[in-house]
Amino acid sequence: MRRLFIFAAGIAVLVGLVGLVLTRPKTVDQTQLNGVVPDLSRGETVFYAAGCASCHSAPNATGEEKLVLAGGRRFASDFGTFIAPNISSDPVTGIGSWSALDLANALLHGTGPEGQHYFPAFPYTSYANMSAEDVVSLHAFLGTLPAVPTQSAAHEVGFPFNIRRGLGGWKLLYLKPGWVVQGDLTDQQIQGRYLVEVLGHCAECHTPRNGLGGLKRDLWLTGAPNPSGKGRIPGLTSAQLDWSEADIAEYLKSGFTPDYDSAGGEMVEVIENTSRLTDDDRLAIAAYLKAVPASPTGSPSE
């Protein structure tokens, strides 16, 4: 019996050690960023394409106030309420002391400077495919924005979801770099894929999730329940959105639909961001969306 107990204890320790290794926060190799020169103009484009201000500016901020990234917006979910942190250039309360490598770790692996897992309310599962050039350029652009000495508020997440080490296991399941829509795509569609699947992280709202909060990639962009509990976020697949590519591009620029209706709700802020992209970018997004199949299972989600 004693030998059996010792054996069981040894197995438990071994399993625990393997678990600690598998769930440890991952980081970027510095060599991936070596020699990458930041481009401020590109960094500004990435800033708007990624919608940074839509989450990290203060609640109800408008105009130039949206460049003040003090955080404070609240995002309710089934796992608790997440509060956007200060990502201004303040070196104490913001991310002004972060290196480009620190930002790369956050964007590509959801790992903080102190080696902690970030909650996936920060859409690093989409940003994971971001290029080194865009990371470095975004880092440089963020450094040009105002510093704000506002302390970030703690997330309101209860047990067991507040155990950050457990996020390492979640990442093993759902943090999977790679493209969803593949095949023989045109250069324009590839450009649009990067803007939609990565920078724009459109799937974070327009794709349904499972019980653990992971995106159902087999139902890519087929629509999802609104986290607010009110209504449904529409699907964007070729079977659900019958607008022409020109219609989609115009909507992303002006907010007007082909029926002369206008964007509402959270899409207003999305349009504020996409309106700052180039016409080529908006047309690329449209071309990609027209290439997204109804869903690999054959029909859009209900």
UniProtKB/TrEMBL annotation:
Domain of life: Bacteria
Coiled coil in keyword set: no
InterPro entries: Cyt_c-like_dom (IPR009056), Cyt_c-like_dom_sf (IPR036909), Cytochrome_c-type_DH (IPR051459)
Keyword Flavoprotein listed: no
Pfam families: Cytochrom_C (PF00034)
UniProt keyword list: Heme, Iron, Metal-binding
Name by which UniProt lists this protein: C-type cytochrome
Highest classification ranks of the organism: Bacteria, Pseudomonadati, Pseudomonadota, Alphaproteobacteria, Rhodobacterales
